[in-house]
Design brief:
The structure is a homotetramer of 289-residue chains. The first copy, chain A, has 289 residues and is α/β, with parallel strands linked by helices. Chain A has 6 helices and 18 strands. About 3% of the residues of chain A have low confidence.
C-alpha cells in the first residue's frame, strides 16, 4: 500500500482535524447556500436504549446494546424525571462519528502520533472527537447506490459505483463536500448476511474528489471482500486520508427526500455533544434543504 | 398561578413537541435564510469526562461529573481505540435538552399525562427527547443581558430585561424563534454565588413572543429569588408552556461573534443523538451565520 | 393479615438487624462447634458477567445480566489487568442478601420507618446491608424438600413440607439457626415453568422455629400460588419478621455433601463485601463442616 | 531476581489456585479448630459508595470512588427498593482479592500463561478470582508490626519485622496459614505520606513460611522504597509465589480483639461473591474466634 495516497503531514504534524480542513470559507458558503426551506432530515439511526438493569425491578432485555439507561429514583415528590445513560459509542446500533484518535494504523494515529501517546486510561490526547465541537458545515451530496432497493450481498463498492450514482443524480462531488452514501443495508438488521463494503478503489475515489467527511450505511464489508484489502474504509479513509467517518448512518429518509425534491445536494451539518477527549461520539447529522 | 397561560391542549391531547409546533414552514424558511457564510458557533459547554474508574489503574479524579469514561481494553493488536461513556444528562456541566417527559408539574407531564404513565423503569413513553430527532431548525435570536460582563448575583431576570436587550440589539423576537439568552454566568464555575434566574414575568414574556425553544446560561435561580415563584423556567416555561429547554448552554462565543458581526439573528440548529425514550439528551446547538 | 406475627418493635424501634438478633452467644458457639474438618461448600450460584460493551470491540452478548464488566485499558506496559463491574444486585442470576432496607411493606421498612426516610437518591439510611458487615455466623440446617430431584412445578411449600424434610434428616431447627432450603429449582434456567414458592404457612413456620436468616433456591412463587398470599417470603419473612433473605442461593452441592456425610447441620457463615448504604449485596454464604 | 524462588510449575502447568494449594486437609482442620465462640471480626474496610450521578437529582460527591450506586426508579407502588452498583475492584478504598489473572510479570501470568491468552475483552480466562469460589478456610495468624500505633512513614517491612511480631505474639506461622499483617496505615486516609511497604526480604519470608494467602494494610510502598525492588508484593508474592493478595484489608479491629483475647490465631474464612472471569473481587474476610 506504499503507493496509496496519504494525508499525513498535509496540514502539519500536529493537525487533528484531517480532511475537514478541506472545508474552506468558500466551500462552507456553498454549503450554507443549500439551505432554502429549512427542512431538516436526520441521517441518524434511532437507537433504542436497553435497561442497564435486569431482574424483577426492570424490564428484561434481549441483548446488550449501544445505549443502556437507568431511571433515577430521586425520591418522592421530585417533579423532575431523569436517567443515567451508558453509551458504547462504536457500536453498529448508534450513528457515531469516528475521530482521528479512534484509529491507529501501523501503531500510529494521523498524522503519525504514536498510539501510546495519542490516548491513555484517561482518554484521548490527540485527535479526539471534540476537535469538531464547533460544528462541521459544508455541502452534502447523496450518492444512492441502489435507488429504491439495495446492493447485492457482499457487493464491493468501487469508484465506478460512486461515479454511476453521481451520474444518475446529475451531481459532481467537489473538494470539501460531505459524501453521504446509501447502499440500502443495515449492519444490525441485515448482519446475518454478507454485508457490502467499501473497496480501496472507492477510498481512492474519495481522495481524488476531496471528500471532507463521510457518512453512510456502507462501511467495511463483513466478511472481508475477497481479493480486497480488508477494512479499507477505516484503515485508509480514516487512518491515512484522515476523513472523519460517520459510522452507521441511516440515509433512507434522506434518499426518499432527495428523490421527491429532485435535489441531491443540501446543507450538511453535524455537531456532536461537546464532550472532550473521546475517540468518537454519537451524532445526529442533518441534511437541510 | 391559575391565571398563568398554559399550552396544555393547544396542539392536541397527545402532542409531545410543545412549542416547537410554532415553527411553521414560514418560520423555518426565515431561519434557513439566516445562513450565509456558513460559519458555525457552538452553544455548548465543553464537558470534560472524568474517568469512571479510580485507583492505581486510572487517573485520580476530583469529582463526579456529567460524563465518565472507561477506555476499553480490546486486547493486543487491535488498531481501534474505544471507550464507554456514562452520561448523567441533567447535570449542569453538560449542555442538554429538557424534553417534555423531564417534568411533571402537579404530577402531570405536558399536555396532562399522568407522570406514572409518562415514564417507567424502562424509560419515557410520552414526551421523550427523540420527538425532536429530525432536528429543530429555526431563526435564533441572542439577547445578551449583560454585554461584555455579567448580571448581578441573584439578579431576577424580567421581561423588561429581555426587552432592553432586544432594543440594544435592534431585534424583535418573533413567534417560532429560538431564544438564546446570555447573562454571563456559569452554574458550575460560579455556583458558590447566588445565581441570577428567570422570573415568572420573563416566562410570560416568552409566551407572549411565541418562543419555540429556549437556550441560555440563565436558568432557575439558586437560591430561589425572594418574592418570586421558585423554578419558574422549569415549572412554567417547560411544564406549562411546553417550551423545550436547552439547559446549561454557553453563549459566550456566540455573543462575541454577534457583536463582531453586528448580527443578533442566525440559523439555529439542534439535533441530539437519536436515542429513544429519554427525558433529555446532551446537545450541541449551533448558531449558523 | 392482622393476625400474622410481626417482629416490628421486638428489638427496639431503631433496630436494623432483625431476626439476626436471635443469634445469641450460645447460638453462635453452637454454630462454631459445627466446624470440624473445615471443608467449605459454597451456597452461591456462579454468575457469569456479560460484557458491558457491545459492538466490534467486545463480544456480543445474549442478554442483560446481573453483572457486566469492562476490561480497563490501562495503557501499554502496565503489568496489572483490571476491570470495572456493574452489578444489579437484586437479580435472579446472582446470589444476594436482601437487607431490611430492600422492602417497604405498606410503605414502611422494618421496624416501621417510612420508606421515604429509609432511603433516598444517595442510598439507604436505615436497614442497609452493611449492618451485617461483621459477618453472620450461626448453625445452618439444610432442609432438602426433594432429595435427588425437585419439587413439582408451582408447588406451594408449607410448614408440613419443612417438617417432613427435617424428619427425613433427623434434625430440629432451633432458634437462631440459618435455614437453608433446597427445592431443586433454578429461577433462571427453569423460569419458563411455574416456580414453586413459599406459602404464608411456611413463613409462619420460620417464625415459630426462630429462623435468623433464610437461604434457598425457593423464593416467592412465579406466577403467584393460587389461593395464597402473593410474595409471602418477601412481604412477611423479610418485611414483617425481619429475616434477612439470601435470594437465589444454590444449595445443590450442599445437599450432595450433606447426603454423603450424613450431616444436615454445619457452620453457616456469610459476609458480604463491606459496602455501605445498599439495599442488598451479592454474597457467597459458606457451609463449613 | 533470577535466584528468587518461584512457584511456577510447582502445582502443574495449568494450576490457577497457587499457594492456596498449601491448604491441605490437615491444615484446613487446624483452621476449623480455631473456631470456638464463633465471634466474627471483619478484615474489610467499610467502603462508602458515591452516587454515580451528579447534578440536581443526586447528591454532589467529592471524588470518584471504588463503588458508585444509582437508586433505581422502579415506578410508583413498587414496595422493593434496589440499586445498581459500579465497582472498581482494584481500588484502595475497597478490600479486594487479587487473583492470579490480575498480574502478568514479564508478560506472563502464573504459572507462565501469556498475558494475551490469560484475559481478553470478555474477561479472564486463566487465573480468575472465581477459582476460590468454594471459599478459602485455613488458620489465620495476625502479625501486628506496630501494636497500638503504626510503623514509621516509608518503613521497609522485612522478614525480621515479621519475626519480631511473631515473637511478641508467641506464634509461629506454619505452611498453609493465612498471614494477616497490620502496620497501622491506611492507603486512602494516610496516602499523602510515604507509605510503608513490603520488601523482597519479607516476600521471601512468606515463601519460607509457606503463606497460602496474604491480607494486610501493608502493601507495596508508595513511593517505592529506596534501594528495594519496587512492587515486591505484587510482583513476587502474587506474580511469582502465586500467593493471592487481599489488598486494602483493615486489621485494626482484629488487632484489638487479638490483644483483648490474648489469641493471635483464628479461623480465617474468605468467600468472594461467586462472579466468574474477573481479575479480582471485593471481599470481606472474617477472623472467627
Amino acid at each position: 500500500m506504499t503507493d496509496f495516497p496519504s494525508n499525513w503531514g498535509r496540514w502539519g504534524d500536529t493537525d487533528e482535524r484531517g480532511a475537514v480542513n478541506l472545508i474552506t470559507d468558500e466551500v462552507r458558503a456553498r454549503g450554507a447556500a443549500e439551505a432554502r426551506t429549512g427542512q431538516t432530515v436526520s441521517l441518524a439511526r434511532l437507537t433504542t436504549p436497553f435497561p442497564l438493569t435486569g431482574g424483577p425491578f426492570a424490564p428484561t432485555t434481549a441483548s446488550t446494546t449501544a445505549v443502556q439507561t437507568v431511571m433515577i429514583h430521586a425520591g418522592p415528590g421530585v417533579p423532575a424525571m431523569a436517567e443515567v445513560m451508558i453509551v458504547t459509542t462504536h457500536h453498529p446500533e448508534v450513528t457515531h462519528l469516528d475521530a482521528m484518535g479512534h484509529w491507529a494504523e501501523g501503531g500510529r494515529v494521523y498524522p503519525g502520533v504514536d498510539a501510546a501517546a495519542s490516548s491513555g486510561a484517561e482518554g484521548v490526547r490527540h485527535g479526539a472527537a471534540d476537535v469538531y465541537a464547533g460544528g462541521i458545515l459544508t455541502r452534502g451530496v447523496l450518492l444512492d447506490l441502489a435507488p429504491g432497493g439495495r446492493l447485492d450481498p457482499g457487493h464491493p463498492v468501487t469508484g465506478a459505483d460512486l461515479d454511476a450514482a453521481a451520474d444518475r443524480a446529475g451531481v459532481t462531488v467537489l473538494p470539501g463536500d460531505a459524501l453521504v452514501v446509501r447502499g440500502g443495508w443495515d449492519r444490525v438488521a441485515d448482519g446475518a448476511q454478507p454485508l457490502p463494503g467499501m473497496t480501496l478503489d472507492a477510498v481512492r475515489w474519495m481522495h481524488e474528489h476531496g471528500v471532507a467527511v463521510y457518512a453512510g450505511d456502507i462501511g467495511d464489508a463483513r466478511p472481508p471482500l475477497p481479493g480486497e484489502v480488508p477494512g479499507a474504509l477505516h484503515r485508509f479513509a480514516l487512518g491515512r486520508l484522515a476523513i472523519p467517518l460517520i459510522d452507521g448512518a441511516d440515509p433512507d429518509e434522506l434518499a426518499a427526500t432527495c428523490a421527491r425534491l429532485g435535489r441531491w445536494t443540501f446543507q450538511f451539518v453535524v455537531a456532536a455533544p461537546r464532550i472532550a477527549g473521546t475517540t468518537g461520539l454519537p451524532v445526529n447529522p442533518l441534511a437541510i434543504f
